Amino acid sequence: MSVAASIAKLHSPLRELVSTVADAHHGKSEKDKAEVSEWIEKVAAGDAARPEAIQALDAQLTPKTYIVSNYFTAADVALYGALHPTLAQLQPAQYYAHPSVTRYFDHIQHKPSVRAAAAALAPAFDVVPFDLDGAPSIERKADPPKEKKKAPKAEPAASGSAPAPAQKKAKKEAAQAADEDVNKDTGAPVPQQKKEKKEKKPAQESKKAVAEDAGEPVPSMIDLRVGRIVDIKKHPDADSLYVEQIDFGEETGPRTVVSGLVNYIPIEKMQNKTLVGVCNLKPANMRGVKSFAMVLCATHKDGKDAGLELIEPPAGSEPGERIYFEGPEFENAEPLSQLNPKKKIFETIQPGFTTLESHEAAWVNPVTKQAHRIRTAKGVCYSPNFVGASLS
């Protein structure tokens, strides 16, 4: 069933709300369209926002910004509208029990397009106030390290026969273990306490590695750096792509970067341009050319057809300079060496990227609504012409 047909099944005024939110996508692929339609069908049937279903919905939304894929769709508007009557009646202790649903609902209800559509249908979808500052902190634990499977015991060798290879290995390991139990210089036994301390060290190192990107995604996990285009040409097999060589101040030299900017920025305006690069995405093949970073751009609030431009670092910036997010929790944090695509860290953070009234680039926390400007030590990165733009 098409998304439009599913929307027609919604009750008024939710049907009018979903129909009039201009930037709510119906799906960028056939798979996404089917999923958007499926969610709207659930809402129409009254199944998506039942009180007993909210706990399961909370778990489903924990790693997500939007209910389908990583962009805003009509399914989000429908789900927001279906949740509205329930969440409007909850007391703080009740909505604190569903942090992901509350965070998701608050993010959707404050989208400008949703507020504009809701204003015409007031008071059905008035803003639901949440005391998010008083919310208890959420404890997140790293997954415990997996237990190693024990090797099966070798069968004893027949009497008088030569030792089997497994038995030889076991004897060798036993001898090594015995050697480790004595001081190599004095021959005295090693105290058990020291031995245990020695054995625990690898486990501690393993735990630290597991925890590197554990927990909820935060913007400081993203590695942003100043870069400068030193060479640019059109992709040999794709008319809409540039292939750039960008200097990020690395000893290994410039990185090859592929970007889909041909239809938006003339090549002469890209040459020798200083820009902001996302440097810890997993390298990706773009029509036969591997791209090792991403150029951060601002898309006009009315969409790509209205314009797209590069985010620029402050004047005097040099390749390789660190770019970070303002705020004590982010300024001194080290980015991850590489973002794990399965954890969708960039996709989770990206919807909060925008340009402020001052044209300054920032990440707006969807929960606290606090803007954290994106900057270097010299100043704040910015979009020359756009306000309220999306960054990607």
TrEMBL record:
Protein keywords: Cytoplasm, Protein biosynthesis, RNA-binding, tRNA-binding
Localization per Swiss-Prot or TrEMBL: Cytoplasm
GO MF annotations, alphabetized: tRNA binding
Principal cellular location given in the protein's record: cytoplasm
InterPro entries, per the entry: Arc1-like_N, Glutathione-S-Trfase_C-like, Glutathione-S-Trfase_C_sf, NA-bd_OB-fold, tRNA-bd_dom, Tyrosine-tRNA_ligase_regulator
Database matches in Pfam families: Arc1p_N_like, tRNA_bind
Any single GO CC term annotated in Swiss-Prot or TrEMBL for this entry: methionyl glutamyl tRNA synthetase complex
SUPFAM superfamilies reported for this sequence: GST C-terminal domain-like, Nucleic acid-binding proteins
Biased composition (Low complexity): 154-167
Protein's name according to its UniProt entry: Nucleic acid-binding protein
Organism this protein belongs to: Phanerochaete sordida
